[in-house]
Structure formats: structure tokens, C-alpha cells
Amino acid sequence: MQKFIIEGGKRLSGELKLQGSKNSSLPIMAAAMLAQGESVLKNCPKLTDVYSASRILNVLGCKCSVSDTVVINSEGISGTEIPESLMREMRSSIMFMGAMLGRLGECTVSIPGGCELGPRPIDMHINALKKLGAEVSDEGGRINCRLRGGRAKGTRITLPFPSVGATENIILCAVTAEGETIINNAAREPEICDLCGFLRSCGAEIHGDGCGSIIIQGREKLHGCEYTVMPDRIAGATYLSMTAAAGGEIILKNTCTAEMEPFLSVLEQTGCGIYAAPDTIYLRSGRRLKAVRDRIRTMPHPGFPTDAQAVLMAALVTADGTSVFEENIFDCRYRHTAALVKMGADIEILGKVAVVRGVKTLHGAEAEATDLRGGAAMAAAALSAEGVSVISNISHIDRGYEKFEEAVRTLGGNIQRV
Ligand code: UD1
To answer: Which residue's alpha carbon is at the smallest distance from atom 16 of ligand 1?
Structure first.
């Protein structure tokens, strides 16, 4: 099990090119299976989750290679089953359900893995796919789905909550359905728009993504294309929070600044200087940060992203005053706080609320990454802390950050992988 050894207490300074989005790349890789022929994806980050998606595609008979670009050729697709071991590697494996139904009319999957953030049911995915014509049965945890007549039928679906994953699965199944599908209360996350952008480049007809109501006219066939995946707004939030926490300055290039606004507008309240152009963000963190006055409520986009809650908290633990978080998406998304407290933070958890009373400094400690963003938060806190921290279980961090330690070193941080 690899670890990060981090010596903190140094100001950070440097220029970073932001990686491509993990949360876009994975559904887009699943979507490539719907396109006949070859798709070439640029700006996919080289992450363990991307390699897992590649393994799934190869098991199904597609040819997928990951190097500077991800190249997927779906000509040889034949398999309809994803082994349980591959399903368990990441949450996004569930995206293959909609894509396999859309391309092959049937699939067998199991409950996906991924970060343990509390219960992560898939009832909305299943109910929506049933509305599109799937017959679904569960045999000891293996979920068998088969489209009646081999092809989905367009329909109206109103989601009880704008679930990102369920919206993606519906889109993936509906783009090759017969007729029109309307998704009401659809998720509006930028990664949904990126998925739709890719599918449109493959010949799909989709309108309204990003607006809550998505209208899809099913097409019999889609074709491969070349597509550039959007930047990773959560990795961006992480490197900005890290610099805010440690003090210093960062020029972040290749950003999606407009899509990061719900995060940036909160970060700005800490008193950091932020200058933002459409694809570049400059942040300067001088004196001690100020606590954020308004309660930070995680909400579906365009609310404050749940994925940025932990990394921002790592900066606010040493801010002047008290900040209050309210986690509204997942039940167990404060698992990183125990490590921050070990480093000297003052955090009180009251159900879905976390009260963060700023302390003067943190000190190094040993901590175990609990999940992807929680692990990144621990690394950010360690960089601002006096002394040495050891963070173990960093495979969680590797699932979401491309060359994490190289990025930290580019900013002048002292980090080693052992
Ligand atoms: C969520 C985040 C997404 C983030 C990702 C990884 C939101 C709205 N979604 O997406 O931004 O990138 O985690 O951390 O912030 N739910 C059900 N039944 C379902 C599906 C979901 O009850 O069938 C519930 C979940 O338990 C959760 C909420 O709906 O409480 C949001 O889930 P969803 O958006 O689907 O989660 P992800 O797609 O994992």
C-alpha cells in the first residue's frame, strides 16, 4: 500500500495545467460503445478509473487503448456481461448499463463499487430503464436487463431527484431508442453537457442539456468521432483550495471557469485574490483566510458541488472564524474530518452539518485516505500543516488525480510517494 509523505508549512507557487475531467471521461468512454467504428478522446486523464473503464470495454469486445489519447473501436463488441470484479472497481461502471442496452439491447451487471459515501442506491437508474422498455431481474446481486423487442422506446421520465448517474444512464439508453425521450428534473452538471456534446458529435439529437429538461430524438445508428473532454472542475477546486490553505499563488491553466463559478464564488469569500478568465484562474492567498459567512450547502449543480466540500474544508480549518457546511447529497461525506481533527482542526459534526472553527495552525499527523476527495483534502491540509504527515491508502487519490504528486511539486510542495 503506497503512502504520501508530505512536509507542510511552505507557501505554494507555480503554474499548473488542469487535467481533463474524470467525471466526464468515464460516461463518455461508455458512450463510445454506442458509436459504430472508432472514437478518439483527447484530454482524458490517465487515472486508475479510466484504466478500469478501458478494461470493461475490452472485456465486452471493444478495442480500447489509453495513451496520449483514448482510442475506442466498438466494431468487435459482443459481450453483454461485466464481471463483478470490474463492476466493483468504480462507481461509474454503472454507466455501462445504459450504454450496453443502447447498443446491444441487453446486459448483466452488478451493484457498482466506488467511494463509500453512504448508501448509493441505483433505484432511479433501474426505474428509468424500465420505463424505456427494459425487463430487469436480480439474481443474487447480478442484475439482468433486456429491452423488449431489442430496442428502447422513447418515453417521458421525471426523476424524483436530479441524479447525475441516472440522467447519464437514461441518455445513454435513449439516444438509440425508437422515438422521443424527455427527461424532466434531469441533472444539470457540466459533465452531463459534455456527455451530450460527445454524443451529438456522434450524430445523436439531444436538446436542453444543462437546463433541467433534456429532449432526445432516438437515432438508429451513431458514428465514431474525435472529441476533447472538458477540464476537471473538481481537480481545479482541489489545487485552488490547496494553495489557499498553504498560502501562495497559482496560475491554473486549461480551466472551465464558468462551470467552476459555484465553487469560486464561495472561495472568494475567504479573502483570496481571484482573477478569472474563461480558461485560466489566478489565485493569490496572502494573509490568514477568512471563514465563509454563509452556510456552504452542497447541492446539485449549479449549487456548491459535494465533491468540493472536503477540499474547501481543508482550507477553512485554519481560517479566521467559524464556517458551517451542510452536506445534502451523501450521508457519509465527512469521513475525512477525523484526519483533519488529528492534525489539530476543530470540527464538530451534527448530522449533515459540520461546524468548522478556524484554528491558528495544523500540525503533521498520520492519516488514512477514506475516499477520493477526502484523501485529497487530507493532502491539502498536510501541505498547510507544520511538520510531516503520512497519508496512507492513496489509491483513493489516484482514482481521481493525474500525477498528483507531480502537480503538488510543480507548486513547490514537498511530497513523496513511498
Ligand atoms: C454524485 C454527485 C456528482 C459527483 C459524484 C461523485 C450530485 C447531485 N451528484 O453523482 O456531482 O460528481 O457523486 O462524487 O451532487 N440516489 C438514489 N437513487 C439512485 C441514484 C441516486 O437515491 O438511483 C441518491 C444518492 O444516494 C445521492 C443522490 O441521489 O444521495 C445523488 O446521487 P447521484 O447524483 O446519482 O450520484 P452520482 O451520480 O454518484
So the answer is: 121
Q: What is the pLDDT of residue 117?
A: 60
Q: Is 306 in the pocket of ligand 1 (CB under 6 A)?
A: yes
Whose Cα sits closest to atom 1 in ligand 1? 164
CATH class name, domain 22-228: alpha beta
Report the 10 Å Cβ neighbour count for 9. Answer: 18
Strand partners, 12: 248
Q: How many CB atoms lie within 10 A of CB 220?
A: 9
Query: Region 273-280: what's the mean pLDDT?
Result: 97
Residue 193 among the catalytic residues:
no
Task: Check residue 116 and give its pLDDT.
Answer: 65
Atom index in ligand 1 nearest the CA of residue 373 equals 14
Selection from 108, 17, 109, 27 nearest residue 70 by Cα:
27
Question: Could you tell me the fold of the domain covering 3-18+231-417?
Answer: UDP-n-acetylglucosamine1-carboxyvinyl-transferase; Chain (3.65.10)
Q: Which residue out of 64, 107, 115, 196 is catalytically annotated?
A: 115
Distance from residue 282's CA to the centre of ligand 1 (Å): 30
* Amino acid at position 105, single letter: G
Cα 314 from Cα 277, distance rounded (Å):
25
Q: Alpha-carbon distance 84 to 142, whole Å?
A: 8
Residues 165-219 have pLDDT tens digits of 999 999 999 999 999 999 999 999 999 999 999 999 999 999 999 999 999 999 9
- Domain span(s) for CATH 3.65.10.10 in the chain: 3-18+231-417, 22-228
For residue 163, give the nearest of 17, 271, 306 by alpha carbon.
Answer: 306
Q: Is the CB of 21 under 6 A from ligand 1?
A: no
Residues in Cβ contact with 99 at an 8 Å cutoff, skipping those fewer than 6 apart: 30, 31, 33, 34, 172, 173
Dihedral angle sign, alpha carbons of residues 136, 122, 35, 77: negative
Among protein residues, the one with the nearest Cα to ligand 1's atom 20 is 122
